[in-house]
Amino acid sequence: MLVIMFTDDVKPLDILNYLIKYTDDASVLSAQRSKTTVELEMAHVMNWAVENIMTVNLLKTVEIVFHRPTVSHDLFPSVMLNVGRVAVAKLFGVYLRHDLNFLQHVESIVATCNQRLYLLAQLKKQGLGISAINSVFKAIVLNKILYPLLIFFGHLTVGQKHMMQGVLNRASRRGFIPYYYDLEILAG
């Protein structure tokens, strides 16, 4: 509650820009057609931090420019001082690429879920019942798949959808869940 109250007064300079605040994290989204540059928005946040006796960790600060694959790099905004420009950034647990391809995020989900399926196999070997295994599956696997699924599902390729469905299929084959989950229906 205190964080919300403390950071309530920092707002973007331009109405077209967004400042997303979450506990000790902030993200500035600057539209191409904004009258305020991302450098000015960043300076505004930095000044606010100084006025409120806070620091911005520039080692953790990155910039990502979302663009079409065919756009000339000459049209990109200039690189900000002390801020690295990246092709992929992790925001609220989701890997975002400059071209909105979610392959890295899907690969991360699948790798994590496969490790958790191994854990479920060990719990099953120890004699944990199907009801309890299903509850653990929902908590540590299904929630990992569902977390941002509704947001990015429409951007997934057929192959990426198959990778995620494969996790659900393995869970079903190994008897961790009493029924079949269909990714298309879950994203519904």
Protein traits:
2 domains; two-stranded antiparallel ribbon; two-stranded parallel ribbon; 188 residues; 45% helix; alpha+beta
Q: How many discrete domains?
A: 2
Biggest sheet statistics: 2 strands, antiparallel
Integer average pLDDT: 89
**Unreliable runs:** none
Number of strands: 6
Biggest sheet, spatial arrangement of strands: 1-2
Helix content: 40-55%
- Kindly report how far apart the N and C termini lie: 34 Å
Strand content bin: 5-15%
Radius of gyration: 21 Å
The helix-and-strand class reads alpha+beta
The SSE order reads: HEEHEEEEHHHHH
* Coarse morphology: elongated
Number of helices: 7
Description of the structure:
With 188 residues, the protein is α+β, with helices and mostly antiparallel strands. The protein has two domains: 2-86, no CATH class; 103-187, no CATH class. Helices cover 45% and strands 12% of the residues. It contains seven helices and six strands; from the N terminus they run αββαββββααααα. The strands form three sheets. Strands 1-2 form a two-stranded antiparallel ribbon. α3 (103-125) runs antiparallel to α4. It is elongated and about 60 Å long. The model has no long low-confidence stretch (mean pLDDT 89).
